[in-house]
Amino acid sequence: MDISEVRIKLMNDPHERLLAFCSITFDVSFVIRDLKIIQGAKGAFVAMPSRKLMDRCPKCHNKNHLRASFCNQCGVRLDENRAEKDDAGRARLYADIAHPINSECRELIQQEVLKAYQDEKITAQKDGYICRYDDFGEEDYARLSPYEEDHEETKAPAETSGSESIHIRKNNQVFRIDSAKTSQESSQPHHTAAEQPESDKVSSNESIPRSRGDSFGSGIV
Predict the structure, then answer these.
(1) DSSP conformation class of 12
(2) Counts of helices then strands in the chain (DSSP H, E)
(3) Is 147 helix (H, G, I), strand (E, B) or coil?
(4) Could you report the per-residue pLDDT of 122-177, keeping only the tens digit for each?
(5) Nearest 5°: CA angle at 76, between 71 and 81?
(6) Which helix H or strand E contains 52, and what residues bound it?
(7) Is the pTM of this model over 0.70?
(8) Where do the domains of the chain lie?
(9) Which CATH superfamily is domain 1-49+97-136 in?
(10) Are 161 and 179 in contact (CB under 8 A)?
(11) 98 and 32 in contact (C-beta within 8 Å)?
């Protein structure tokens, strides 16, 4: 078995343990992607592509990750420590999708991948560097739908000072909203001066003159 090609995608965060993704090609015939180069306590090592292990909820039979505290479907509480543990006491949460079945093959893959990783770091420092790793456009930005493009809002300065206008494009038509006019209308009071209650019209008991003989207890026979 011959490793004919190794492609590396470097990670930009120096504080993360994940150093790079890579893909390997065997005998110009078979490709395995999403291998990871991880910084361990004893140096960098190659991790094979893997998937999360799951089990079923005893209530609704929905599948959940082994670290899930609650069922994603019915919400019942699950035991967080239900995953099986290896000889070192670590929870077994992932399973390799593809992996070597003997130590010779594993050492060959790790040796070739780590060598390609060091070469890629040197190549990345040169001008015009282009990563050859095929990530199927996962780092590209998505296109906006025509609906979002028709409702695009742009701000432009208005002709008058201290104000601005908002132009809204919808169905190939442009509508203008003058924010200065809107703020002026919103600053007006809710009531005009004629509608405001007059203070001198407000009466009280003290301003009403008492008639003669009008005293406490009057009218009591």
Answers:
(1) S
(2) 3, 11
(3) helix
(4) 999 999 888 888 766 666 777 778 777 666 555 445 444 455 566 666 555 666 66
(5) 70
(6) strand 50-52
(7) no
(8) 1-49+97-136, 146-184
(9) Stage V sporulation protein G (3.30.1120.40)
(10) no
(11) yes
